[in-house]
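Marked as duplicate of an earlier ticket. Keeping the data here for the record.
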Amino acid sequence: MAPSSENAHPGKLITFEGGEGAGKTTQLALLADRLDAQGLDVVRTREPGGPPGAEQIRQLLVTGRTDRWSPLTEALLNFAARHEHLQNLILPALQNGQWVISDRFIDSTMAYQGMAGGVGQEAIRMLQDIVVGHHLPDLTIILDLPVGQGLTRADRRGADENRYERMDILFHERLRQGFLHIAEQEPDRCVVIDGTRSVEMIAKDIWSVVEKKFGPFDKDATP
């Protein structure tokens, strides 16, 4: 049975998920700007990362050789960073009534390490129960597009944090299917958005999803 969110805080947690080059960072910024325009107090963050300690762990994960860590070690590092993220940024913000929008969260560990990496869903869920508990996202937006298209986009960025981008194509195919499987398992929380279209079309669909779940908003307010 899929877990349910039992968040008792006044804020909202929205997460963006997807493979490499899916456009998460761009769409997160557009959504955050639009929510800002509604007068909401929005916190933008990312995983692995957020607070200083979690950002230090991030560098261990996203740089270096592709075989630097085993998938289980990666999962443990991600959950260590996530614990810092939750305790020192996400939960305090939510308790203050802020809207937290995160570039990746629990589903990335399930897809990257649990499914694509072979750790398995059961092991990831056990770690999630310990670290995250019932603090699940109120909404997860999964940007989906063909692996080749995403990797081409990611390669154009020329970023140093490219350890996962350099993993083989089969890994990325398993990763894509992992995210789609998560969406099938948790349809009340997860929405899959076609990431092959223009930035504007994708942003429009995302706003429609957010407005349907959390609205109504002031339609005249624009970023």
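See parent ticket for discussion. The helical segments are 24-37, 52-62, 71-95, 106-116, 121-131, 147-157, 169-185, 199-214.
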